[in-house]
Write a structure and sequence with these properties.
Strand content of chain A: over 45%
Radius of gyration of chain B: 13 Å
Radius of gyration of chain A: 13 Å
Helix content of chain B: under 10%
Structural class of chain B: mainly beta
Distance between the termini of chain A: 41 Å
Helix content of chain A: under 10%
Oligomer: heterodimer
Strand content of chain B: over 45%
Shape of chain B: globular
Order of helices and strands of chain B: EEEEEEEEEEE
Structural class of chain A: mainly beta
Distance between the termini of chain B: 32 Å
Largest interface: A-B, 23 and 23 residues
Number of strands of chain A: 11
Chain lengths: ~110, ~110
């Protein structure tokens, strides 16, 4: 089946450092979504990217969709302790309502 | 949070016993999903439903069955639980917001099979 590869699996940063997680598909995606899961919680939707080369920002978070629609990234500028959690990308191919999730990147922020 | 509840929230059972997990939603969403979450594997789709009595398999459906006799309830059954089914199980619904569909997740059920 179709898969979305996500790296890194873990990332420890000092508060104030930047953080980036990457997702890659071997085939062209129709769209990609990003979710955040706080420790002990459930995944929460952050954003959806649809267009080739699309860039969206939410405060310190920047989401990008590659030109070929096969890769995506989430960049956090100047991390804070509130950013702690696991970030998942989730891809869709074609229509329908199914998502395939990446394995997630667990972010830890140290003071 | 789209009115999604899961029950039970925690369960410990023994190998070979049947287990049923319940997902309940209050907003009449058409699509519902069951995922399992394991370290290093992220979220993997078990089964999903696109309407009453309409269900389909996900990528890890072996050993699981589902039923949806009412719009608001989606049941996941482990006919004979195995230790490999120890996991955190999340139910989700798909809700259209503007031009896209986002998934809302329930709080999860932590299942331990001894």
């Amino acid at each position: 089946g179709q898969q979305v590869m996500q790296i890194p699996q873990y990332q420890h940063v000092q508060e104030g450092e930047d953080f980036t997680t990457y997702c890659n598909s071997s085939t062209t995606l129709s769209n990609i979504q990003w979710y955040k899961q706080r420790p002990g919680g459930h995944p929460v939707f952050l954003i959806q990217l649809v267009k080739s080369g699309e860039v969206k920002k939410q405060k310190r978070l920047t989401f990008q969709f590659g030109e070929a629609k096969k890769n995506s990234s989430l960049h956090i500028t100047a991390t804070q302790t509130t950013d702690v959690g696991t970030y998942f990308c989730a891809g869709q191919w074609g229509g329908g309502n199914k998502l395939t999730f990446g394995t997630g990147t667990q972010l830890k922020v140290e003071l | 949070d789209a009115g999604i509840t899961q029950s039970p929230r925690h369960k410990v059972t023994e190998t070979g016993t049947p287990v049923t997990l319940r997902c309940h939603q209050t907003e009449n969403h058409r699509y519902m999903y069951w995922y399992r979450q394991d370290p290093g594997h992220g979220l993997r789709l078990i089964h999903y439903s696109y309407g009453v009595k309409d269900t389909d398999k996900g990528e890890v459906s072996d050993g699981y069955s589902v039923s949806r006799s009412k719009t608001e309830d989606f049941l996941l059954t482990l006919e004979s639980a195995t230790s490999s089914q120890t996991s955190v199980y999340f139910c989700a619904i798909s809700r259209q917001v503007d031009s896209y569909n986002e998934q809302f997740f329930g709080p999860g059920t932590r299942l331990t099979v001894l």
